[in-house]
Amino acid sequence: MAGGDGAVAMMPHVLIVAGSDSSGGAGLVRDIETVSTLGLRSCLAVTAVTVQTHVAVEHVQLMPPELVATQMRAAFDANLVAAVKIGMLGTAAAIEAVGAVLASNRQVPVVLDPVLASTSGSSLLADDAIDALTRDLMPICRLVTPNLVELARLTGSAPAPDEEEAWRQADELSRTVRAVLVKGGHAQGTRCIDVLLQPNLPAVRFEAPRLPRGMRGTGCMLSSAVAASLALGASLEASVSRAKQYVFDALASSKDIEPKS
Ligand code: PLP
Fold first, then answer.
1. How far is the CA of 222 from the centre of ligand 1 (A)?
2. Residues 221 and 34: beta-carbon distance below 8 Å
3. Separation between Cα atoms, residue 162 and residue 149, nearest integer Å
4. DSSP 128
5. For ligand 1, is residue 224 a contact (CB within 6 Å)?
6. Which of 4, 126, 157, 168 has the fewest CB atoms lying closer than 10 Å?
7. Full-prediction pTM beyond 0.85?
8. What architecture is the 10-252 domain classified under in CATH?
9. Is 147 in the pocket of ligand 1 (CB under 6 A)?
């Protein structure tokens, strides 16, 4: 193992592969906060630097795919990486580079938040990269966490107008991945329902009251919280349940946060 501080290196780390967001609303800041709050250390592979306020993406600078891969390899060399969380990737070339590193570290659970666009609507993944995501990366992940908009794009469908169509899309996606957690944050109703689907297992529903708050970065927080719990040895179902509670608590205490452009 490389590095001078062996004691820190032996602590379980979550390797976060994601983009920065200068506003602090999403991306790496949220991921690191979450992993740290759940008692683990983070190590990083930065995929992109984004210049953002809470209402707009002003600039995106993608890191070269080989730089993303070398960051990942160094993080694996330096630390006991017990789980990986993947957020914004940007391009098919980055997806390929990340997939190649993960292929040599197959024992580590990977949670993929398929970030396609910012909450403010800007694209954060090239249109021609969806195929690479579904074909090369999703099958090696322990869990993929799309919201309803991402679920539709990943299955090449129109956004689901009703629960029946959302189920059909989720069922289609769950045939090619080990597990999919469909997030109901963009749906309607008084309860926010997320559904965990795994091939040959009954679906599991996770419910919480829907809070009248808009907060950026909740997808980043949820996926990082699942990765942190998996790193601590919890089962997938227990990890999702704990992550959902973590995001609910963060939303419930976020009333003082006023987005500012
Ligand atoms: N990663 C980055 C760098 C982002 O800027 C965003 C959204 O703005 C996301 C991820 C996705 O954020 P969310 O958790 O809201 O899906």
1. 12
2. yes
3. 13
4. G
5. no
6. 4
7. yes
8. 3-Layer(aba) Sandwich (3.40)
9. no
* Tokens encoding 230: 């998996």
pLDDT digits (tens, 9 = 90+) for 21-64: 999 999 999 999 999 999 999 999 999 999 999 899 999 999 99
What's the pLDDT score for residue 255?
65
CA distance 119 to 125: 13
Ordered by start, the domain boundaries in the chain are 10-252
Q: Using 50, 70 and 90 to split pLDDT, how confident is the model at 258?
A: very low
Q: Which residues contact 223 (CB under 8 A, 6 or more apart)?
A: 85, 86, 87, 111, 112, 113, 143, 145, 243
End-to-end CA distance of the chain: 45
**Cβ neighbours for 261, distance < 8 A, ≥ 6 positions apart:** 53, 54, 55, 56
Quick check: 47 and 89 in contact, CB under 8 A? yes
Using the 8-state DSSP alphabet, how is residue 176 labeled? T
